[in-house]
Design goal:
The protein has about 180 residues and is an alpha+beta fold. The protein has one domain. It has six helices and four strands, in the order H-E-H-H-E-H-H-E-H-E. The protein has a four-stranded antiparallel sheet with strand order 1-2-4-3. The longest helix is centred in the middle third of the chain and has 15 residues. The protein is globular. It binds iron/sulfur cluster. The site of iron/sulfur cluster has 13 residues, from loops.
């Protein structure tokens, strides 16, 4: 898909910042996977997280099979950024933008890969590992599940990672042909 057209189309959505990047230049850090494993309660609990998303090598190969990637952020205001429940309650707004981009901007792209923020929260109880994912076309693994460091990409592309003590910054990535 033509990047100029994408830029024109995404201007109508509440996207805070964005950049187009070459997936070949994305670093996949084993340390990011280790942090998932050691610190995230969702590790091993969801189809959208490791180890269900595949090995580090599989994830790296998956993203590098695409010639293009869009990284974008949306922001939401909260009263206290350290209040996890309040912070997570704003994720839905970000996912609405992700869904809109998928349907209205990348509608002609047969094969895209979407990575978003945090673990999939569609079902109250994830089917992992006993049964298949119930919504494989709406389940978007989190960016970190693919060992990608958002801060690393932000630094290289002049994107803001932190935007104030009461602002949640959510990131999404869309890989496309
Ligand atoms: S859609 Fe449901 S089953 Fe699939 S990853 Fe999300 S929570 Fe799990």
């Amino acid at each position: 898909m033509n990047i100029e057209n994408i830029e024109k189309k995404i201007a109508q959505y509440p996207i805070f910042e964005y950049a187009f990047i070459d997936p070949q230049e994305i670093n996949c850090f084993p340390a990011v996977r280790s942090i998932c494993q050691i610190e995230c309660p969702q590790f091993g609990q969801s189809w959208s997280c490791p180890p269900a998303v595949g090995s580090l090598e599989e994830c790296e190969s998956r993203i590098k099979d695409y010639p293009n990637a869009l990284i974008f952020s949306t922001i939401s205001e909260v009263t206290d950024l350290l209040n996890m429940a309040e912070m997570l309650s704003t994720r839905g707004e970000h996912i609405e933008v992700v869904e809109a981009l998928k349907k209205e901007v990348f509608e002609d792209s047969d094969e895209i890969l979407i990575l978003t923020a945090e673990s999939c929260a569609i079902c109250e109880d994830c089917a992992y590992p006993d049964a298949k994912c119930r919504h494989p076309h709406k389940m978007y693994p989190c960016v970190e599940s693919h060992a990608i460091s958002v801060t690393d990409i932000c630094e290289k592309n002049n994107l803001s990672f932190l935007n104030g003590h009461n602002v949640v910054t959510w990131f999404g990535m869309i890989f496309f042909n």
